[in-house]
Amino acid sequence: MINAILVFNNHGKPRLVRFYRHLAEEAQQQILRDTFHMVLRRDEHVCNFLECGSLFGSPDCKLIYRHYATLYFVFCVDSSESELGILDLIQVFVETLDKCFENVCELDLIFHMDKVHYILQEVVIGGMVLETNMNEIVAQAEAQSKLEKAEVSGSVWGLERGAQVWAQGRLGSGYHAGASVLWGGGRRELVALRVSQPAHPQGKAHRVGAPHWGVQGAASMQVLLCCQG
Amino acid sequence: MALKMVKGSIDRMFDKNLQDLVRGIRNHKEDEAKYISQCIDEIKQELKQDNIAVKANAVCKLTYLQMLGYDISWAAFNIIEVMSASKFTFKRIGYLAASQCFHEGTDVIMLTTNQIRKDLSSPNQYDTGVALTGLSCFVTPDLARDLANDIMTLMSHTKPYIRKKAVLIMYKVFLKYPESLRPAFPRLKEKLEDPDPGVQSAAVNVICELARRNPKNYLSLAPLFFKLMTSSTNNWVLIKIIKLFGALTPLEPRLGKKLIEPLTNLIHSTSAMSLLYECVNTVIAVLISLSSGMPNHSASIQLCVQKLRILIEDSDQNLKYLGLLAMSKILKTHPKSVQSHKDLILQCLDDKDESIRLRALDLLYGMVSKKNLMEIVKKLMIHVDKAEGTTYRDELLTKIIDICSQSNYQYITNFEWYISILVELTRLEGTRHGHLIAAQMLDVAIRVKAIRKFAVSQMAMLLDNAHLIASNTQRNGICEVLYAAAWICGEFSEHLEEANQTLEAMLRPKVTTLPGHIQAVYVQNMVKLYASILQQKEQAGEKEAAQEITQLMIERLPQFVQSADLEVQERASCILQLIKYIQKLQVKEVPVAEEVIALFAGELNPVAPKAQKKVPVPEGLDLDAWINEPPSDSESEDEKPKTIFHDEEQRHSKPRHPEMDEEELARRREARKQEQANNPFYIKSSPSPQKRYQDTPGVEHIPVVQIDLSVPLKVPGMPMSDQYVKLEEERRHKQKLEKDKKKKKQKKEKRGKHHRHNSLHTESEEDIAPAHHVDIITEEMPENALPSDEDDKDPNDPYKALDIDLDKPLADSEKLPVQRHRNAEALKTPESEVPPVEKKSKKPKKKEKKHKEKEKDKGKKKEKEKKHKKEKEEKSKDKKKSKKKHHHSEEEMAESVQNGTLDDEPLPPMSSYRLLAENPYIKTTYDIQGNLQNDSQVTVSVIFENKSTSFLKSMELNVLDSLNTKMLRPEGSSVHDGIPVPFQLPPGISNEAQFVFTLQSIVMAQKLKGTLSFIVKNDEGSTHEKLDFKLHFSCASYLITTPCYR
C-alpha cells in the first residue's frame, strides 16, 4: 500500500499532497515538513530510500523519493511494495506529466494542481497502483480532458447565444448581430461580435472586436459597439 | 433562459479561478494568511450562489487551500452539491475535493450514498471512474455495506477501465465491511484470469494485500499464482506474485521446494533489477522456511549471497541499500554465509550515505559472535572517533551497546573489556546517550558479580576524573555516567581499595554543579562509602582516623544542604544530622560502624520488567472465589431478595482470613522452603546480604572466580580496551592449545560416538570459553513465569477482521445486502407477512381498547369473548402463516430469497452509539433520536457501562444548558440541578438511561458540556468521582427516522 504521495519543491512548498489514509490537516502538514527536512538533508548521490519509522506510526513505512530539478516526488509506502518498482512508478508518473503538460515544469504543477491530481488518479487509487503503462495513463487522462472540453465548449455556445441576444437588443432591428467565442479557457472568454446591416446593400460584416470581458466586462463591449455604430 | 445563463457566466468572470488564487497567494508573500482568509470569505460567498459552475470553481479553490493545510471540512455539504452536478467537469472537482477531505467522521457523508450509486451506474464510464476513485479515499463502513453489491457488479463491467478500478476498490470495501469478502471472493478470483492485463494486475494486487495479512486463507490459490508466475511477462505483476509467495511459503514448505527452481531461473534470466531483487528476497524466505527441513540448499544460498554481493558492490546506491537489506534477512538463518562478507559490510560503514551506514550497522548487530565481537567493536570505536555529526555518532554508540548487550551479553567473553569500552565511550563529547552508558554500567556491575571489583576500580577512576566529564556544560548528557559511577562505588564499596580517596572525590565542591538527581545519588552513596570506611577503621582500631573521616563529612556536607534541588537538600540534611550523631557517639568511644553499615545491609537484585505480569494464574485457582465462605452475619441479608446482584454484593464485604496459630504457620513455612529447595526453577533469593561482616553460609557455592588484577589499569599511549583485546587473544590461544590436547585424547575415546552439533553455533565459537566463569545473575522472575510475550499483540488490528476462511461454501445469509424496492407483490400475496412495524403498532392499540372496555361496561362480556375468540383465531392464523412460510422457504429457496424483505435479511443494525466519555471506572456512549410526538424535543439515550470492579451508585448527570438546547428537568428543580440516573451499576454491568432535551432550532449544531458524578464504592470505602463530557448534537441527529411505505 502507498500511504501518501507528496510533491514539494526545494523549499518545501507543497505542490501535491495526497494521503491515502485520513489525517487531520495539521498532521498532514507536519508530515510534509518532516519529510521535507529528511529528504533535504540528503546528498544528490545517495540512495532513494529512507526509513521514516515513526512518521506514520507503522514501523515498516518507507519513503521512496526522486528529485527532479526543483521538485521532490516522495512516495510513502509500506513493505508490500517493491522499492525499485515504486522508483519506476515515480518515473512513469513524471514522464506522464511531461507528456500531458508538454515539457512539464514546476509552474505547471503550481497552477494546475487539479490536473495533476486527475493524472495521478489514473496511476494510483486508494493507495494501490492502478496502471503502470504510460500510454494507457495518458490515453485515459486525455480522454477525460476532452470530455471536459466538450462540456466547456457547450457552455461557450450558451455564451455566444447570450452575447448575440444581448447585442441584438442594443442595436435594434436594423442590425444583425453574431457572436463567437474566440477563446474560452476558464473565465476569460474572448468574444468577437460581428455586426451587419442587412438593410444596407453595402453593409458588410464588421468585426466588432475582442473585448476582454474579465476586466471591463460588458461596459467595454458597449464602448466598442458605439464606435462601430 | 439563455440570458440567465449569460448572467451566470458574467458573474463568474469576476470571480477568481484557481489560477488567480495561486497567483494571488504568490503575490502576497508577506501577508499570505490575511490574503487567504480574504479568499475564503469570497469562496463562502460563491458557495452561496445557485450557479453550479461558481460553486465548482469555489470548491476547486478550496481543494488547493486544503493542500496548504487549511481545514475545509465546513464546506462538506457544498462539496456534495458539486459532486452531484450532472456535468463531468464539475463532478470531478467535487469528487476530488471529497477524496481530499472526507473521512469517517464527516457526518454528511451518509447523504452521498445514493449519488454515488447513481454515478456508479452511469452510462459514462468516466463518471463511474471518478466516483470509484473518490470512493476509494473516503469509503466508510456504511458506504461499504450499502455499495458493496454495486461495486461487485462493476467488477464484471464491459470496460476494463472500470473493471480494474472496481477490483482495487473492493479491497477498501473489504477493510471497512469484512462480511463482503466471502461473497465477493469468487469473482475476485475470476479476475485473476481476466483477459485485460490491467485488471489482472489489479486483482493480483488486491489478493496480495489480503494475503499479506492473513496468508493461510490464500494457500489454496497457490497453484493459480504459480501458473501466473510462469506465464506472465508483466514485471509489475510478477513482483507482486513473488512477494505473495514470500508470504505464503512459511506456511507451506512444499510450496517452497517447488518455487526454488523457477525462481532461480528467473534470477538467472531477468534483466530487471527490481524483479531480480524480489526473486532473491523470496528465495531467502523459502530458504528460511526450509532451513529446518532440508540442509542441502547451500547452492541456492550461495547464489543469493553472491547476487546480493553484486548488488552491494554496485555503484548504484539504491541497489547497495537493498542488497544490505536482503542480506540482513539471510543473516537470521544462515549467519555463516553472511559472515564471510564481513569485509564488504564494514566497508559500507564508510559510505557517505546514512541509510546505507545504518543498514550496515544493523547487519553487524546480527553478525557478531564470541569470536569477532571485540574486533567489530574496535572497528566501530574507530568510526565513533571519526564520525561527523552527533546523530550518527549517537547511533553508533547505541549500536555498540546493543551489539554488546544483545541476548543477555551472550557474546561477551571478557567483561573487563566491556567495562573499559564503556569507560572509553564516556569520553565522547556532546552525546545524548549518557544514560544508556550509565544503565549498562549499572546492569553489568549488578548482574556480573565477578566483575564488581574491576568495575568499582574503574568507576572510582571516573569519579576521580569527574571534572573531565562534567567540564563543558550542564546539559552535557555524558555526566549521567557519574550517576552510575557513584552508585556502583557506594553499593559495592567493599571492593574499593582507596575508599578514602573516592570519598574525597565525591565531596569536591565541583560536584554541586552537577544535575540534581546525580547529586542526590552522590549524597546517598557517600554515606555508604563512609560507612564502609568507618567499619574498616574501627576494625583496624584506628579511632582517630575514623573520627577524621567523620569530621570530613561534617565539614563538606553543608554544601549539599544548601542545594537548590529538594531531593539533594533533604537527603543531605538528614545525613548530616545522622553523622553529627555518630560523631557524638564516637567521642564517647562507642563502636558505631556495625550499626551504620546496617543501614545499607542487604543486596538489591535486578527484577525483570514484566515479572509481575507474567505470573500465570495457577490452574484451579479462581482469584475471585472466596477463600472461606463469609459467614452470613446479619439477619438483614436474609431479608433481601435473592437477586442476580447477590454475588456482587457479597464481594464487597471484607473477606476474613482464617486465623492460624503460630505453629501451623511455622510448619507451613518449613514445608514451602523444602519445596522451593527441591524446585530447580525457583530462583532462590540469593543468600543475600553478602557484606563481609555477615558470615552467611552458602556463599561458597556461587562460582565466583577471583580476577587476577595483575593487569595494569592504564597503559600509557594506548586505549585500555585494546589491551584487553590483546590479553584475550593470548588467553584464547592458550585455551585452544589446551583444548587441542584434550581433544586428541577425547578423540581416541569418543571415536564412533555420535557427536551432536548445534546448528547455530559454529564449532570455533563453541571453543571459546569466557575468560572467567561469569555468573550472570538473571533478572528475578517469579515462579512459573510465562515465557511468551502474549501481551505484545495488538488487539485492535484492523486486518484481523479479514481473517476469514474463503473456501467454505457461501451461505445465503452472507449475500451482500442489495438495495431493493419494497416488493409490491409480496404485500399482495396472502402468504407474505404484514410488515413487522405495523404489527407492533397494532398490538398496543388492542390492549388499550381492552382496557377501556373493562372500565366502561363489564356487561358486554359476550362481545368481549367474541373479540377474544377473534384474536385467538387471528393468532392461530398467524402461526399457520409462519408455518406455511417456513415450509415454503424450504421448498423454494430461490423464491423466498427474492421475496424475503426485512425478516430474511435484517440489515445490520445501525449502531449509532457514539462515545461520550470514558474513564477507568465508567464508559458512556450515547445516541440522539428525534421525538416523534414532540417536534421540539430530542431524546438522548446514554449507555453507562461499569468498567471497574467497584460498585457505582448515586450517578447524576448534569448538563450546562445553552440558549437553544435545554435538558428537561423535573418540575421545580433549578437549571443547575442534575438528573439522577435511575439505577446503580454493579461491576461489569451496563444499563441505559434516557434524557429529554428541548430545542429551539434544529438548524444549529450544538455542543453541550456536562458532568456525570457518581460514587465509587468498593472494599476500601467509597469515593466521589466525576466525569466531564461533551454532548454533541449534530443537525443530522435531529432527523426523525420514519419507515417508508408504498
Automatic annotation (TrEMBL), chain B:
Q: Where is this region: Disordered?
A: 622-696, 728-912
Family according to the record: Belongs to the adaptor complexes large subunit family.
Chief localisation class: cytoplasm
Write out the biased-composition intervals (Basic and acidic residues): 639-675, 728-740, 795-839
- Could you give the subunit structure recorded for this chain? Adaptor protein complex 3 (AP-3) is a heterotetramer.
Sorted alphabetically, which keywords does the UniProt record give?
Acetylation, Coiled coil, Cytoplasm, Golgi apparatus, Membrane, Phosphoprotein, Protein transport, Repeat, Transport
Q: Which GO terms describe its cellular component?
A: AP-3 adaptor complex; cytoplasmic vesicle membrane; endosome; Golgi membrane
Name the gene that codes for it. Answer: AP3D1
Source taxonomy = Eukaryota, Metazoa, Chordata, Craniata, Vertebrata
Q: Where in the cell is it found?
A: Cytoplasm; Golgi apparatus membrane
What membrane topology term does the record carry? Peripheral membrane protein
Q: What does this protein do?
A: Part of the AP-3 complex, an adaptor-related complex which is not clathrin-associated. The complex is associated with the Golgi region as well as more peripheral structures. It facilitates the budding of vesicles from the Golgi membrane and may be directly involved in trafficking to lysosomes. Involved in process of CD8+ T-cell and NK cell degranulation. In concert with the BLOC-1 complex, AP-3 is required to target cargos into vesicles assembled at cell bodies for delivery into neurites and nerve terminals.
Biological process, per Gene Ontology = intracellular protein transport; lysosomal transport; vesicle-mediated transport
UniProt domain AP-3 complex subunit delta: residue ranges: 660-807
Biased composition, class Basic residues, residue ranges: 741-759, 840-853, 878-887
PANTHER family to which the protein is assigned, alphabetical: AP-3 COMPLEX SUBUNIT DELTA-1, DELTA ADAPTIN-RELATED
Which InterPro entries is this protein grouped with?
Answer: AP3_complex_dsu, AP3D_dom_metazoa, ARM-like, ARM-type_fold, Clathrin/coatomer_adapt-like_N
- Acidic residues bias: start-end ranges: 777-794
Q: What is this protein called?
A: AP-3 complex subunit delta
